[in-house]
Amino acid sequence: MKELVILSGKGGTGKTSLTAAFAALTQNHVLCDADVDAADLHLLTNPEIKQKHEFIGGSKAIIRTPDCTRCGVCLQHCRFSAISDDFVVNHLDCEGCGVCVTFCPEQAIDFPAQKCGEWYISATRFGPMVHARLGIAEENSGKLVSLIRKQAREIAETQNCSLIITDGPPGIGCPVIASITGATALLIIVEPTVSGQHDMQRVVDLARHFRVPTLLCINKFDLNPEMSKTIEDSASQAGLQIVGRIPFDPDFTKSMVAGLAISEYAEAAPQLSRLLRDIWSNIMQSQALQHRQPEATVLPLFNK
């Protein structure tokens, strides 16, 4: 079983659109939306939820008023000013560190686990899908990402699926780390801008740290051909395979409005659909997905 994780250094580069496009081009796979903070793959897959589960991802302090002597120890130790002068915990400010629980001399503070979100197992026209929704301002997104990736793998094993396609979160933070560890290969989607190149390099650096083979796809390459060439040169020096270059095309937006993957929008965009098929073929035949790519060399963030 293989897992391809699709990433980008920032949001809005086309990760989800391409994830849905690739899902429409292959069979015998499981979809996983690991962007739990701002999940949107469901907008293109129209999932039918089969299972719904609560995500218990952390704890919040609750002061038992009858047992509290108002000694003030918790106020002194709380570094987030989450406890009012009336000795009531503000759950929006509480970081769940548990320091107040540890130092309370009367043991008058409870620390129950909290529901931080929900995760789902759904059926889509592309096959099974595991996705989640983290609550507003909730923590532990990395833990939730790990949970749904585990569920996706279990489904793939049960249904004898050969591939997991994961729509990863943007950036290089905790949820990204949770989404790439143990993956077979990464596909980085990059736009031809200075910030796009910088963000790409950060993701490449992270992938190298975890020794995950990495592929590259340039989206909207024709909007800035000079920067696209610069990114290609940097990728080549770093030993990264460029699997495709996608031009700017309004049909991407039209397909999203229609709730379709761009690959399903073939009548309106036959040339683009063929291009995406070629890119998917390059991905499936790549050394990265076959575990034959040597470790990439990481370039400095900026060329001097």
TrEMBL record:
Q: Which UniProt keywords apply?
A: Iron, Iron-sulfur, Metal-binding
The cross-references to InterPro entries, in alphabetical order and at most eight, read: 4Fe4S_Fe-S-bd, 4Fe4S_Fe_S_CS, CobQ/CobB/MinD/ParA_Nub-bd_dom, P-loop_NTPase
Signal peptide residues are none
Kindly list any coiled-coil regions of this protein.
none
Q: Where is the 4Fe-4S ferredoxin-type domain?
A: 59-84, 85-114
Domain of life from the UniProt record:
Bacteria
Q: Which SUPFAM superfamilies match?
A: P-loop containing nucleoside triphosphate hydrolases (SSF52540)
Statement: the UniProt record of this protein carries the keyword Transferase: no
Pfam families in the cross-refs: CbiA (PF01656), Fer4 (PF00037)
PANTHER family annotated for this entry? Answer: 4FE-4S CLUSTER CONTAINING PARA FAMILY ATPASE PROTEIN (PTHR43534:SF1), MIND SUPERFAMILY P-LOOP ATPASE CONTAINING AN INSERTED FERREDOXIN DOMAIN (PTHR43534)
**What protein is this chain from?**
Cobyrinic acid a,c-diamide synthase
User: Lineage of this protein's species?
Assistant: Bacteria, Pseudomonadati, Thermodesulfobacteriota, Desulfobulbia, Desulfobulbales
